[in-house]
Amino acid sequence: MFANTPEPPYYAVIFTSIKNDQDEGYGAMSEKMLKLVQQQKGFLGVESAREEVGITVSYWKDRASIQTWKANLEHLKAQEKGKSAWYKDYKIRIAKVERDYEK
Amino acid sequence: MFANTPEPPYYAVIFTSIKNDQDEGYGAMSEKMLKLVQQQKGFLGVESAREEVGITVSYWKDRASIQTWKANLEHLKAQEKGKSAWYKDYKIRIAKVERDYEK
């Protein structure tokens, strides 16, 4: 259920978003991207939840892996559609995980 | 709606959790902690959503502010109750935000 991340350091991409009412194609694209991201080099896992805001945190080995995923052609199409149609607003934060612990 | 964070660098605490069925007192404590955290030195904002997993990301000026909040007496009581009663599982990641951008 939680992303099974290794010992720090590793990277987190915190994607916070608010959706538009326009939802067409969103579910299918989400599933497609979820499959595709799992094939990316350096991808470690993802956690996601949505209420008023959506929060998706993906985890990565390093910043180079994040850059490569951002430039992926299929992902670029999804980003463009997200920007023009699905998301009213979003914010992306790239962060280096320095420490983690659990219950 | 989004946390109004300053220019990086700043810190993010990514708290991922799965709740137990036992829910007594949880809502009241959440509200209490949300009020209290906003009075803490170095607190920058918080974003939260829950579906299968809950994700709460709080933002902080530096790691010292995070440590001070973790050791706050009222917060320690909440943490203890969370550990013993409300949360089936949780994971906490402390990360330095190096870059951010938005729509």
Number of strands of chain A: 4
Which chain pair has the greatest contact? A-B, 37 and 37 residues
Order of helices and strands of chain A: EHEEHHE
Described by strand count, sense and barrel closure, the largest sheet of chain A is: 4 strands, antiparallel
Quaternary state of the chains: homodimer
Number of helices of chain A: 3
Tell me the number of structural domains of chain A. 1
What would you call the structural class of chain A? Answer: alpha+beta
Low-confidence stretches of chain A: none
Mean of pLDDT of chain A: 96
> Could you name the CATH class of chain A?
Alpha Beta
Q: CATH topology of chain A, which one? A: Alpha-Beta Plaits
Percentage of helical residues of chain A? 25-40%
Quote the distance from N terminus to C terminus of chain A: 14 Å
Write out the strand line-up for the largest beta sheet of chain A, numbering strands in chain order.
2-3-1-4
